[in-house]
Design goal:
heterotrimer; A alpha/beta (316); B alpha/beta (142); C alpha/beta (560); B: 142 residues; alpha/beta; Rossmann fold; five-stranded parallel sheet; 5 helices; globular; C: 560 residues; TIM Barrel; four-stranded parallel sheet; 22 helices; 11 strands; 49% helix
Chain lengths: 316, 142, 560
């Protein structure tokens, strides 16, 4: 792709599946360049062909190896596979080591697999709004199965619920209390629960434990599939792929509601923006509100409401 | 130390060929991260095609290849393949045990810089940062 | 550390000590605490308050006796010095054989075989970029290659250290050669030097070939096979060297190595093997860094812990099972590219530490290792260093000559405590296998590597020629490179193609099928089928590829 390409030509190249155009469009989105906005607008009418599979799980469960094997299955079925791997940024330096490439070695020369690592850049290890744009770009570029992987801690797993059609939560035996930790959030979003490292003693026990946890949940309990895999050898991964495809074929998608998703994203983005602006703003009225709070003349809720009443934070 | 940047530099730190000693590349990756860069880190034993595909998809500014044995002999093939893939703007640096006569060969093949044992954190960070900026300017043409 | 100062019945001691302390403090106002690489505080002076030998028999004993702190044999180096085992290997099997002849002519008694990196990674020569072939070791893929390596050498009378990660194809090829030459397997002696797959998984991925669960199975199969068929072979060398080279502190390296040995022992016991059968065949392999006294204390403490472990935890009764036999290699990462001849001094210092620590076998690095693959001249200096230390400096006259030094004994105790703390951490993580699988070990090593690098960057740790005492250098003065001749390597590739065409493919396929089936059958011994496949004519690369297909590719868990 030469530099001389116009913006329109770049968008055309992107939609034609040119990987270099896709890579660059993703960078534009990440760097919030002006070009990103027009690209995202232009691709809107062409979205929705791809199916998105979210994968998260307990650290040490072998998630990356499992994804690598799963990609192999999807490739065997003739799918073009995009992978978005999100790793946390260092809160101190802003830098990051994006290491999930490590486990994808077997697809390293396959042009039918496009992997992009994203640093969470302050989004607590979860999905940044950028990640959903990246998914859209891959969708527009003709990648028909897109896997979104997030680290198994923090807020990120819940965000996956917004971005994915099917959500896989990976666990493994022998991780001690971590299986218990599944209860505290990510179990709720799972469509498929995978017990990886099924060759280890205790795999059946872990599966049974998960099943009984599910049974305690009143609704949706029957909807969740449990599946055992051994990612190191690939055992059970074909079955996992079938389960996911069956769910997709049955129209399983909570991503479908684009309006709701947009609403949630706008709310988050506006909130973030507001927080940033308020932290830096030097204004007498804001100072006054804070002083009243300090002196105990107002409570936090009233102070916040006062801020929203007074704030005209954005000019345009 | 370089302060936090709005657009972090993206660097690929990798090992070509057969050797698997990765202490050097791990330490360098950590240095670059701590300097605010986004480091794509791979397992050792990459081949040239894989590195090119990776550099393209991840849209990196610099590719750093660590070599302790003789794996740097593959680097000229890498610079050539990057150019062929339209990624000539990406700067390639090599670090590790590189004999002098091989160093001149690498420079001729388009390698921007060779780091030897004893290169300091400051040197490495400053050089990679400067090369990354140059690469980005060249690609964006603005 | 946690020990209280010993109360001494020496009249006047306390007064004298206080007097010295005052004088010292006056000369050294505001002195910063010094620590060794393992983080242990190093004080300016050690006295009978730190060590007095009251528990001499319990803590030190006599050489060859429990707890073996002072050495594992009664006569140690005064009787039989260490084996001089230089790792060699470059180019084609013929090149290797020529170098071997020179070494044997010079009186060498123990051999080693370093294969090419392509072999380490599990490939045949025709599967990798030809420019990399034979640059770091010998290209050995077939029985024919192994024959050529040991042409004119009696493999029944010489001990060979095989740098041979699992599934141990090089040993299989050697056994196939023995069979062809009519040498009974019971006469084949040596060591499988790279059998410690956990150390490869966490710290040296060069050797890691097959996914963890498969590796775990093959190692036990191999130990079991050796116990039944190869009485002169040490099937296991537990390697602390990789972890220390990757950045672990000496205490961490020793603790992690001992934890690894514990893991392998438990895996063998789970298979129904007797500790007294397999433990005498365990050997160890350590890095010797520039931290002189720390290295000596590390090995002495390791010996003591291992002796207690084998007796108390595994109930071994055979004294051979209690012996902590180890090979030492001077540390490559301590060598510098700047002023490379300085490395001779470094290697000498490291070798002395190893000798004082009572090693059984020693490899001294060549000073030019940091510039390129060692030249023959440099390799000769490395061997001479050992001869000088032994025969000119008489370092071997007295057994454990530093034993009884207040400092060394106290440091041995402190290192022991630090090592045991590491072992406990691993134990709490469910043992070494799980601690490696989860990435705990990798992150411990990574943290220590970074911490050491930061000490170098800050100048807290001096490295002559790097962050201190720098000089302008004429870099052209470096020795020319030794690279295998391209024609010789092409001939090697042709020979491989000819070999592949000339064998009975039916037999090879059948043997590889049996190998695949042995994986599925838990009662079968996979290594036995590896040997059968080698005898049937399968190549190194074919055997590894088959096992990767059946057991999974060995991708390490790399953490920054």
């Amino acid at each position: 792709m030469s530099q001389a390409l116009s913006r329109t030509e770049r968008i055309a190249a992107l939609m034609n599946g040119d990987p270099a155009a896709l890579a660059r469009a993703i960078s534009d989105v990440e760097r919030q360049r002006p070009a990103a906005r027009s690209t995202l607008e232009a691709i809107q009418p062409h979205l929705g062909r791809a199916r998105v599979i979210g994968v998260t799980g307990v650290p040490g469960a072998g998630k990356s190896t499992l994804i690598s094997r799963y990609v192999t299955e999807l490739r065997r079925a003739g799918r073009r596979v995009g992978v978005v791997a999100v790793d946390p940024s260092s809160p101190i330096s802003g830098g990051a080591v994006l290491g999930d490439r490590i486990r994808m070695a077997e697809h390293a020369t396959d042009p039918g697999v496009f992997v992009r690592s994203l640093a969470s850049r302050g989004h607590a290890g979860g999905l940044s709004p950028t990640a959903t744009h990246v998914v859209d770009l891959m969708d527009a570029a003709g990648w028909d199965r897109i896997i979104v992987e997030t680290v198994g801690a923090g807020q990120g797993e819940v965000d996956i619920a917004d971005a994915a059609d099917v959500r896989i939560v990976v666990s493994a035996p022998g991780l001690g209390d971590d299986v218990q930790a599944l209860k505290a959030g990510i179990l709720e979003i799972a469509d498929v629960l995978v017990v990886n490292k099924a060759d280890l003693a205790g795999a059946d026990q872990t599966a049974a434990q998960l099943a009984s946890m599910l049974a305690l949940r009143a609704e949706h309990a029957r909807d969740v599939s449990i599946c055992k895999t051994t990612a190191t050898t690939g055992q059970g991964v074909a079955e996992l792929a079938v389960i996911v495809e069956t769910r997709l074929a049955a129209g399983d998608s909570r991503r479908g509601c684009a309006a709701q998703r947009a609403r949630r994203m706008v709310a988050t983005a506006a909130g973030n923006l507001l927080t940033r602006e308020l932290r830096e703003l030097e204004a007498p009225w804001l100072q006054e509100i804070c002083e009243r709070l300090q002196r105990g003349q107002s409570d936090l809720e009233s102070a916040a409401r006062a801020v929203l009443r007074s704030a005209k934070l954005v000019d345009e | 130390m370089i302060s936090r940047r709005a657009e972090p530099v993206r660097v690929l730190v990798t090992k070509l060929g057969l050797d698997g000693h990765d202490r050097g590349s791990r330490v360098v990756a950590a240095f670059l991260r701590d300097a605010g860069m986004e480091v794509i880190y791979t397992s050792p034993w990459q081949d040239v095609t894989a590195v090119v595909q990776l550099a393209l998809q991840e849209d990196v500014d610099v590719v750093g290849v660590s070599s302790l044995a003789t794996d740097h002999l593959l680097v000229p093939k890498l610079t050539e393949a990057l150019a062929q893939a339209g990624l000539g703007h990406i700067r390639v640096v090599v670090g590790g045990i590189v004999p002098d006569e091989d160093e001149s060969m690498l420079k001729r093949s388009g390698v921007s810089h060779v780091f030897h044992p004893g290169s300091t954190r400051e040197e490495i960070v400053a050089e990679v940062d400067a090369l990354a900026r140059a690469a980005r300017r060249e690609r964006d043409g603005d | 550390m946690s020990q209280r100062p010993i109360q001494l019945p020496l009249p006047g001691f306390d007064t004298a000590r206080a007097r010295w302390q005052d004088a010292y403090n006056q000369q050294m106002p505001g002195e910063k605490t010094r620590r060794n690489r393992s983080g242990i505080e190093i004080r300016p002076l050690y006295t009978p308050q730190d060590w007095r030998g009251e528990r001499y028999l319990e803590q030190l004993g006599f050489p060859g006796e429990v707890p073996m702190t002072r050495g594992i044999y009664p006569s140690m180096h005064r009787g039989r010095t260490w084996s001089q085992r230089q790792l060699i290997g470059l180019g084609t099997p013929q090149d290797y054989n020529a170098r071997l002849e020179r070494i044997l002519a010079a009186g060498g008694s123990a051999l080693s075989l370093i294969p090419c990196n392509s072999v380490y990674r599990g490939y045949d020569a025709d599967e990798v970029d030809a420019v990399l072939l034979g640059t770091c070791g010998a290209v050995v893929n077939t029985v024919e290659d192994m024959q050529a390596c040991f042409e004119g050498v009696d493999i029944g009378s010489i001990s060979t250290a095989m740098n041979d990660p699992l599934p141990f194809t090089l040993l299989a090829l050697l056994l196939a050669v023995a069979k062809q030459r009519g040498v009974p397997w019971c006469k084949v002696t040596g060591t499988s030097n790279q059998s410690d797959y956990i150390s490869h998984f966490v710290a040296n991925h060069m050797f890691f070939r097959i996914a963890l669960p498969g590796s775990r199975r093959i190692l036990v199969d191999h130990i079991d096979f050796a116990a039944r068929n190869l009485p002169g072979w040490n099937p296991l060398s537990v390697v602390g060297q990789h972890m220390q080279q990757a950045g672990a502190t000496p205490a961490e390296a020793m603790g992690l190595t001992l934890s690894t040995a514990v893991q392998y022992a438990e895996d063998c016991i789970a298979r129904g093997m007797e500790p007294d059968v397999f433990l005498p065949r365990f050997t160890f392999f350590f890095d010797i860094s520039m931290s002189f006294f720390e290295e000596i204390a590390k090995m002495r403490a390791g010996r003591r812990i291992w002796c207690r472990l084998t007796r108390e935890r595994f109930g071994a009764r055979d004294p051979r099972a209690w012996r902590f036999k180890f090979h030492g290699q001077t540390s490559g990462v301590d060598l510098t590219r700047q002023q490379p001849l300085n490395n001779i001094a470094r290697v000498t210092t490291q070798a002395m530490a190893g000798i004082f620590a009572g090693l059984q076998s020693l490899h001294t690095d060549s000073y030019d290792e940091v510039l390129s693959v060692p030249t023959e001249d440099a390799a000769r200096i490395a061997v001479s260093t050992q001869n000088i230390l032994r025969e000119e400096a008489h370092l071997t006259d007295v057994i454990d000559p530093l034993g009884g030094s207040y400092y060394v004994e106290r440091l041995t105790d402190d290192m022991e405590e630090a090592i045991i703390a590491v072992m406990q951490r691993i134990e709490e993580a469910g043992g070494m296998y799980h601690a490696a699988e989860s990435g705990l070990v990798q992150s411990m090593i990574g943290t220590s590597a970074l911490a050491f690098q930061e000490q170098v960057e800050s100048g807290e740790q001096t490295i002559v020629g790097v962050n201190a005492y720098r000089v302008e250098e004429n870099s052209d003065a470096h020795a020319p490179l030794a690279r295998p001749r391209a024609e010789a390597m092409q001939a090697q590739l042709d020979a491989l193609a000819r070999y592949k065409r000339g064998r009975s493919m039916g037999e090879v396929r059948a043997a590889l099928d049996r190998l695949a089936r042995s994986v599925a059958d838990e009662g079968d011994n996979v290594f036995e089928k590896v040997v059968d496949a080698a005898i049937a004519g399968a190549t190194h690369g074919e055997i590894v590829a088959k096992l990767r297909e059946e057991m999974g590719f060995g991708e390490p868990l790399v953490q920054v």
